[in-house]
Amino acid sequence: MRIPFNVPYATGHEHRHISEAIENRHLSGDGPFTKRCHEWFRQRIGSPALLTHSCTAALEMCALLGDFQPGDEVIMPSYTFVSTANAFVLRGAVPVFIDIEPAAFNLDARLIEQAIGPRTRAICVVHYAGNAAAMEEIQAVADRHGLLVFEDAAQGAMASYRGRALGTFGGLGALSFHETKNISCGEGGALILNDPRFGERAEMLREKGTNRSAFFRGQVDKYTWVDLGSSFLPSELSAAFLWAQLEHADEITEARRQRWNRYYEAFTDLEARELVTRPAVLPNRVHNAHMFQLLARSLDHRTRILRKVRARGVDAVFHYVPLHSSPAGRRFGRAATPMPVTDAVSERLFRLPLWPHLPLPLLDEVVGIVADAVVAD
Prior knowledge:
eight-stranded mixed β-sheet, Aspartate Aminotransferase, domain 1, globular, 15 helices
């Protein structure tokens, strides 16, 4: 039997909500289910949000709202998905990569100031594995230099820092609802609007550059093209699926945390023997159990572990190839600091299967297979 890395989760209410959307005869964006989702975010995280068809779209909206010009620079980690950088490159901006800190693998706030130059406009934070970056320190640097702060919280739904939801610290935040994320609708995302000055324009950018939303609210007698924009809306079918997930977001998160904690306890001994390193548990942060990762001793060690566990049916996987070392990263961006932590983490990290309904006996089987591979090596 193969144990997959991820199995998309359904609460059981998705079909009913999608059928209701079909019966309502509203399948395009911004229908009743989209509005329910928007209200959920307003109440749950304290900031308005706009659903998008992906987190990539939400990040591209960040770049549009930031009014980036060719040659402007954005400081970000190299250890992230390509969408973090692509969103700004599409506007002609330059990603400036800095190293991550060794505990949670987030942007190292101590390195930001040495990367700031005359064209620096913003800092884009990534909350790796739903574990918060040091937002107070990062915001303090941004305030000293008059920089925008964006949060790529693609992995951060239902996680918090000092009681605040991830994605609500910077001027804008972006969430992902891809099928590999904790809360999912197959493909989807949200733009979180923490700074009110972005709200009106965000609506127009999301509606192909028109004031269509204002028209439907009766604020203008017709709508027309008023700005840049694209079709960033998800369909009402996606929103209906997402609503079923948001209704049960706490239960989904708790189920993931139970499994994450079981992994964490199970690998205590191997970490004590310095055979692997478990995820850091940091103060003031409530992670969302988005992933459970281990660090092997070296690249060769990880390669051997993955070969052995995959041969026994466990879909364990590594994660990002750092952007600063990728062909496009070298073409469109630049590294402002040495990258020893980024390079080491990318060579050593591997992730284990984790989903809300992963049977505990199967999880225990994964632990045994991984432990055998680690010890045998």
